[in-house]
Write a structure and sequence with these properties.
The structure is a homodimer.
Chain A: H1 6-18, H2 26-33, H3 37-49, E1 53-56, E2 62-65, H4 74-80, H5 99-125, H6 128-143
Antiparallel strand pairs in A: 1-2
Helix pairs in contact in A: 2-3, 4-5
Chain A binds a DNA duplex through residues 1-6, 23, 25-27, 35-39, 41-42, 45, 55-63, 84.
DNA sequence: TTTCATGTAACTTTAAATAGTGCATGAAAC
DNA sequence: GTTTCATGCACTATTTAAAGTTACATGAAA
């Protein structure tokens, strides 16, 4: 399958939204993400249902952050987009009658579960406010360089 | 893409080979795995290059284990099949000029690297001998049940 | 020399994410 | 009120990598 980049993408979008006072349309966000507006609406739909963002129709409409960034963790965002599978590998069959396969699956699953638990625990410790702070630190560092650039894409 | 089940599959095949004294053909192994002989030859090719299995052509040929099971870890097998990516998720772009994306990617990558390291460390602690022992324990448990079955697939 | 089995290079199929189209809905501007 | 702008959503198309398949060369044993 294709590599899943939804979490990466939606975090990116959220931080861009946080830099704006006014609502951003899915078209603006799609441009910044070099993707399609419908993809933006689709992934942000989950965040809206979870109460993290708000969407408005019509003139002046678009997307806004609905909660303080410090109150949203990467784990929250992961949950809101539907908890896509984290591991690229899986077992050959789900219901193995073969005892060899059962032994193999048990060993693999133990490892996968541990790795997933660690990953989700880490994500639960990082708030969007921290990501935004990291971004601003990078901004400050870059502004010292000879050719400062905008923080938003073209 | 499809879910990667190569590690699961090749471990399964190795344990079946270990139960046999004589070489097993890729056709026999494919039957047990409900897959295609060429798929078996493809994945076992990496293990052959790594010295874990041996293959022989012609009459009476086939595949045999070339090292004691206690000397092969799940990590070794993972390496031998080419270290396929473990995480289903990744970053949107590899070379982000956007500072927001840099901040997001840095946070995600930290988590992914930690989870991968944990997983590989766990895999490095489990030898095929232990998997085989687990299989035999399951065999013994089943043989107590009213309808004992063969350990090998039809 | 025939038969069996691997080795490998194509090509096809499949699963899942992403991309895109079309239209309904609803809000603001005129 | 009607035009314009924006989301909501159903549906289809594209893309990516694994898995499945075909075809044939190679090499060993019968």
């Amino acid at each position: 399958m294709k590599r899943d980049s939804r979490l990466s993408g939606v975090l990116h979008v959220l931080l861009h939204m946080a830099e704006q006072d006014t609502p951003m349309t899915s078209e603006q966000l799609a441009k910044a993400m070099q993707t399609h507006p419908v993809v933006i609406r689709r992934t942000l739909g989950g965040l809206r249902d979870a109460g993290f963002v708000h969407s408005e129709k019509g003139h002046g409409g678009g997307w806004t952050i609905a909660k303080p960034l410090a109150g949203i963790t990467m784990r929250d965002v992961y949950d809101a987009i539907g908890r896509p599978s984290l591991m690229a590998m899986g077992n050959r069959t789900d219901a193995p009658g073969c005892l060899v396969e059962q032994a193999v699956n048990a060993a693999l699953d133990t490892g996968f579960r541990e790795a997933e638990a660690l990953l989700l625990a880490r994500f639960g410790q990082v708030t969007l406010a921290e990501l935004a702070a990291d971004f601003h630190a990078r901004m400050a560092a870059r502004s010292l360089s000879p050719t400062p650039q905008e923080h938003i894409h073209d």
